[in-house]
Design the sequence.
């Protein structure tokens, strides 16, 4: 991430990765404030066994793009909400990469989706993660079914004796 002020958002990614049993490291590296460290980190990432990079940055968010410039690993960008422009600046500067240097960009502050996308990349060669993702999707469906049931019963509450005699129009 570009600053430790991004940590509350980026921790969502670390948490989701932990749920899938995927180890990760959290670093503060800025393309603007510590450009040399960003270059070194990206250039050494494959050698250190990293598989996917997730970069969260706000405002003039060039971190993901600069990482992508220095590695052939997939880079996922998380635009962090900014004060003045509510993250639109972060979103556009992360997503609008020139042809040849892609950054897969998730929604503003959606670090959890960045982690899920990273797990999906890793699952291509990891059957354990494939089944964990299938289970995750089953749980999503189950939660939606429960929400659907709650919404349906809110729309038509079970009729009580008092209401049973309510007159209908017409
Ligand atoms: P501070 O809170 O440290 O002032 O940072 C950070 O990601 C953060 O969201 C404000 C915002 O500046 C962002 N920043 C970047 C980069 N480095 C820091 N966008 C970069 O390299 O792109």
Sequence:
């Amino acid at each position: 991430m570009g600053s430790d002020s991004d940590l509350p958002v980026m921790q969502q990614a670390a948490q989701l990765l932990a749920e899938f049993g995927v180890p990760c490291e959290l670093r503060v590296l800025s393309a603007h404030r510590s450009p040399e460290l960003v270059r070194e980190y990206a250039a050494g990432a494959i050698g250190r066994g990293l598989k996917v990079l997730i970069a969260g940055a706000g405002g003039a968010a060039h971190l993901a793009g600069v990482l992508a410039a220095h590695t052939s690993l997939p880079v996922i960008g998380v635009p962090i909400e900014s004060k003045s422009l509510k993250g639109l600046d972060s979103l556009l500067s992360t997503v609008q990469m020139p042809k040849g240097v892609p950054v897969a960009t998730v929604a503003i502050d959606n670090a959890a989706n960045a982690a899920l996308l990273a797990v999906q990349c890793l699952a291509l060669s990891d059957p354990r993660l494939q089944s964990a993702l299938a289970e995750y999707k089953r749980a999503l469906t189950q939660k939606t079914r429960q929400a659907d049931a709650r919404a349906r019963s809110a729309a038509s509450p079970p009729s009580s004796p008092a209401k049973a005699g309510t007159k209908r129009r017409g």
